[in-house]
TrEMBL record, chain A:
Name of the protein described by the UniProt record: Purine-cytosine permease family protein
Keyword Zinc-finger: no
Keywords, in A-Z order: Membrane, Transmembrane, Transmembrane helix
Membrane spanning stretches: 63-86, 107-131, 151-172, 184-203, 231-250, 271-291, 303-325, 346-366, 372-393, 414-432, 438-459
The keyword Transmembrane appears for this protein: yes
Coiled coil: none
From TrEMBL, chain B:
Name of the protein: Uncharacterized protein
Domain of life: Bacteria
Keywords on record: Membrane, Transmembrane, Transmembrane helix
Keyword field contains Transmembrane helix: yes
Spans through the membrane: 35-52
Organism: Belliella filtrata
Length: 480, 60
C-alpha cells in the first residue's frame, strides 16, 4: 500500500461511526478503558505541571489533599457527565454538537480547538527540546523567559518540530503504537526517578518522607516572580485541567464505545497515575534541582530527568513530549481540514506543524502551562454545558432538542451567544473581580446552562414536521 | 515463544524500576542504578513491540 492510500485508510478509520451511533457489537467493557486512560494521562505535560506546583509554592498537605479531591471530582465528572451522555447518545462530540449547534458553529469550534491543540503540541516540542539539547550543552530557558534565549534553542526546537511534523504527516499509526508501548515504561521511569533521588533530599526511610516533603519539597513558599498556590488552586486545577474532556464532553468520542456509563470511572487509572503519582514524582525531581542549584530559575525537564535517572530519564522526557505532541498535531490538522475537506491532509499538517514549531520557540508556552491548560478547558467548557442541557432538559422545558438538525439551520444562534456570553462573563470575573483562571470554570458552567436555556427560548421557532414521529429529521418546516 | 518474550519485557520493566529502590535502601550506587535503568529500557523497547500492539489488534 502506498503512503497516500495508507493515509486515506487511516482517515477512514478515524471517521468510523462518526455520524452514527456505535453498534452494540462494537461496545467495549470498562477494562479496555482502564488501559486507554492510563496511557493517555501519563504524558509530557506531567514533567512540567508537577514542578510548576513546586514553583508556585504549594504546601505538602495542600498538594496531597488538593490533588486527591480534585482528581476524584474529575473522575466523577467523567462518569456522571461524559459517561452518561456518551452511553445515551453513542455519538462523537462533533456530531452531537453539529445536531445541536449546526455545521457552521462546529467549524468555528474545530478551528478554536485546532489553535489550542497547536499551542499544547508546541509546549511538548519545547519539553522534548530540553532533553535533546543536553549533549549540545544547550542554554536552557528560565521560569521568567518569554522569548527564545539563544539561536541554539530555536534550532533545536525547529529540528524536533520538523521531525514531529513529518511523522504526523505520514506516520500517525506508528506513533500511536509506539505511544502504547512507551506508556507503561514511562510511568515506571517517573516513579523510579523520584525514588532514586530521595536519599539526596535527606529521605533514607519512609518515616523521613513527610517531614522532608513539608520542609524541603513542597515548602509553601513560591519561587521569585511566581504566584502563591493554595489548596483551592490545586483542587480546581486537578478537577478542571481536563475540563475540555469531561465537562466539555470531548471524551464522548471515547466513552461512546463503553457498554455502560460506569466506564467513566475507568478514568481513575489515568488521573491517579498521571495527575497524582507522576505530578508528585516530577515535583520531587524539581525540588532536588532547586536544592542543588540554590533555587535557580532555570526550568528544563530534560536535564532534571537526566540528573535523576540518567539516559533513561532524558529519553523518557523526549518520548513523553513527542508522543503527546504528535497526535495533538495530527488532530489539529484534521480540525483545520474540516474547513475544506478537499485540502490535502499533508499540506494542512505541514502548515499546522510550522505554526506549532514557531510557537514552541517561545518558552512562555511551557512556563505558563498551568494557565494555558486551565484556559483550554475553560474555552471548550460552554459547549459541554450546552450538550448536557440539550440531551437532558430541552424537551422537559418545551424546547426542541437538536435544534440545528430539526430546523435545518447551519448555525444555532442560542449556542453561539451562550459561548460568547459565558466566556465574556469569565473574562469580566477575571479582569474586574480578580478571580484567577483556575476558578472560572465552575461559575462559567452555571452561566452557560442558564444562558443556553434563555437564548433557546428567545431564538427557537416552533417546528412542524411533515412526517410526524416517523422520521424526526425529515423535511422540517420552520414556522415564522 | 510469546510467553518468553512477555517475560523478557516484564523483566525489562522490573530492571527499570527496581534499581532506584536499591539506591534508596543503600544497596547500589546511583550510577549503577542509571546503567541498569538504561538496560531495562532497551530490553523493554526491543521486546514489547513483539507482543504488545499485536495483542491489542487481536482484542479489538
Amino acid at each position: 500500500m502506498n503512503k497516500s492510500t495508507s493515509l486515506v485508510a487511516k482517515l477512514n478509520a478515524i471517521n468510523e461511526y462518526e455520524r452514527q451511533p456505535i453498534p452494540e457489537s462494537k461496545l467495549k467493557s470498562w477494562k479496555k478503558f482502564i488501559g486507554t486512560y492510563a496511557g493517555e494521562h501519563t504524558a509530557g505535560t506531567e514533567f512540567v505541571l508537577g514542578p510548576l506546583f513546586v514553583a508556585h509554592g504549594a504546601s505538602a498537605i495542600d498538594l496531597v489533599t488538593g490533588l486527591l479531591i480534585g482528581n476524584v471530582l474529575a473522575v466523577l465528572s467523567w462518569a456522571f457527565f461524559t459517561g452518561k451522555i456518551a452511553a445515551k447518545t453513542r455519538l462523537t462530540l462533533y456530531y452531537q454538537l453539529e445536531k445541536i449547534a449546526g455545521s457552521k458553529f462546529t467549524l468555528i469550534y474545530n478551528l478554536v480547538n485546532a489553535g489550542l491543540f497547536c499551542f499544547l503540541a508546541g509546549a511538548m516540542i519545547a519539553v522534548s527540546a530540553t532533553a535533546v539539547g543536553i549533549p549540545f550543552n544547550l542554554e536552557m530557558p528560565t521560569l521568567t523567559d518569554i522569548l527564545p534565549n539563544s539561536l541554539g534553542w530555536i534550532l533545536t526546537v525547529f529540528a524536533i518540530g520538523a521531525i514531529t511534523t513529518v511523522v504526523a504527516m505520514f506516520g500517525f499509526e506508528q506513533v500511536s503504537k509506539f505511544a502504547n508501548i512507551a506508556a507503561p515504561w514511562m510511568i515506571m521511569v517517573f516513579i523510579a526517578a523520584a525514588v532514586g533521588v530521595l536519599p539526596r533530599l535527606g529521605i533514607n526511610s519512609l518515616a523521613d518522607f513527610w517531614p522532608v516533603a513539608k520542609n524541603t519539597i513542597w515548602t509553601g513558599v513560591p519561587l521569585e516572580g511566581q504566584s502563591q498556590f493554595t489548596f483551592w488552586h490545586i483542587t480546581f486545577f486537578a478537577w478542571f485541567c481536563n475540563m475540555a474532556m469531561h465537562i466539555g464532553m470531548a471524551d464522548m468520542s471515547i466513552l461512546r464505545y463503553a457498554k455502560k456509563w460506569t466506564a467513566g470511572f475507568s478514568t481513575a487509572s489515568g488521573v491517579f497515575l498521571g495527575h497524582y503519582i507522576a505530578w508528585i514524582a516530577s515535583g520531587i525531581l524539581y525540588s532536588l534541582f532547586l536544592l542543588e542549584s540554590n533555587n535557580s530559575l532555570t526550568f528544563a525537564p530534560g536535564p532534571i530527568a537526566y540528573e535523576a535517572a540518567g539516559i533513561a530519564g532524558a529519553v523518557c522526557v523526549v518520548i513523553a513530549g513527542w508522543t503527546t505532541a504528535n497526535p495533538t498535531l495530527y488532530r489539529a490538522g484534521l480540525a483545520i481540514q474540516s474547513i475544506n475537506p478537499n485540502w490535502k491532509t499533508w499540506k494542512v499538517t505541514l502548515f499546522v506543524g510550522l505554526f506549532t514549531t514557531i510557537a514552541a520557540c517561545f518558552p512562555a508556552l511551557v512556563m505558563r502551562l498551568l494557565e494555558f491548560v486551565a484556559l483550554y478547558g475553560l474555552i471548550l467548557m460552554p459547549v459541554g454545558a450546552v450538550i448536557f442541557i440539550d440531551v437532558y432538559f430541552m424537551e422537559r422545558w418545551g424546547l426542541v432538542k437538536n435544534y440545528a438538525l430539526e430546523s435545518g439551520k447551519k448555525l444555532n444562534p442560542a449556542v453561539a451567544f451562550t459561548w460568547i456570553l459565558t466566556l465574556g462573563f469569565c473574562l469580566v470575573l477575571n479582569l474586574f473581580a480578580d478571580v484567577e483562571i483556575f476558578f472560572l470554570g465552575l461559575p462559567g458552567w452555571f452561566v452557560a446552562v442558564i444562558a443556553y436555556l434563555i437564548f433557546s427560548k428567545l431564538f427557537q421557532k416552533p417546528i412542524v414536521f411533515k412526517t410526524q414521529k416517523v422520521n424526526l429529521t425529515s423535511e422540517p418546516i420552520l414556522n415564522h | 515463544m510469546k510467553r518468553l518474550i512477555i517475560i523478557t519485557s516484564i523483566l525489562g520493566l522490573i530492571t527499570t524500576i527496581v534499581p532506584p529502590f536499591l539506591v534508596f535502601t543503600n544497596q547500589i550506587d546511583p550510577s549503577t542504578s542509571k546503567t541498569l535503568m538504561l538496560i531495562g529500557t532497551v530490553v523493554w523497547f526491543i521486546s514489547a513491540p513483539l507482543w504488545l500492539n499485536k495483542k491489542e489488534q487481536e482484542s479489538v
